[in-house]
Amino acid sequence: MDAASEQKERDKVWDLIKDAHSAVLVTVGPDGVLQSRPMGCLQKAFDGVLWFLTFRHSEKIAEIATDEHVLVSYADPAKYEYVSVTGRARTVDDPAKIKELWTEGLRVWFPDGPDNPELTLIVVEVDEATYWTNAASLATYAWKYVRAAVTGEGAKGEEIVDTNKVRF
């Protein structure tokens, strides 16, 4: 894939996640079990890095310190749009960046505001994103259902939705 096509696919990922208010961050717990939790999205632009705000003594920070591999998942079921992002996470203690990304809506979770010394950022450097969009129409879905019921042959994912993997 040429550079222009790669950038177009990366822009598509941003287009799919830019209006998200929350995502699910999945980390690896100390016992190897996956741990997930909703996180508020802070993105104002996207250059292959995702930003999240948290308290520096949270369990997720300890999990990231042990295993940097994470998954971030976005969903807009009303539009049948889904994005799964894998990458490597780390913490960043940058009060200026916290202020840059701060919105007053965050005060619900962080009532002391952006100057709270307990705040830290999680930065996820994206390795790959997979997205699913353009779900089949009801008629197409119904046809695939009938075909599956009659022939026993299930639909393939690409017959129901557009999907693509994007490397960063």
Descriptive keywords:
5 helices, 7 strands, Pnp Oxidase, Chain A, alpha+beta
How would you describe what is shown here?
The protein is α+β, with helices and mostly antiparallel strands and 168 residues long. The protein has a single domain, classed as Electron Transport, Fmn-binding Protein, Chain A (Pnp Oxidase, Chain A, Roll). The protein contains five helices and seven strands. The protein has helices spanning 3-17, 59-66, 95-101, 138-151, 157-160; strands at 22-28, 34-40, 49-55, 69-76, 81-92, 119-133, 162-167. It is elongated, with a radius of gyration of 19 Å. The two termini are 13 Å apart.
**Poorly predicted spans:** none
Number of strands: 7
Give the distance, in angstroms, between the N- and C-terminal Cα atoms.
13 Å
Shape: elongated
How confident is the prediction overall: mean pLDDT? 92
Structural class: alpha+beta
Oligomer: single chain
CATH H-level superfamily: Electron Transport, Fmn-binding Protein, Chain A
* Rg value: 19 Å
Measured by DSSP, the beta-strand proportion falls in 35-45%
Report the order of strands and helices. Answer: HEEEHEEHEHHE
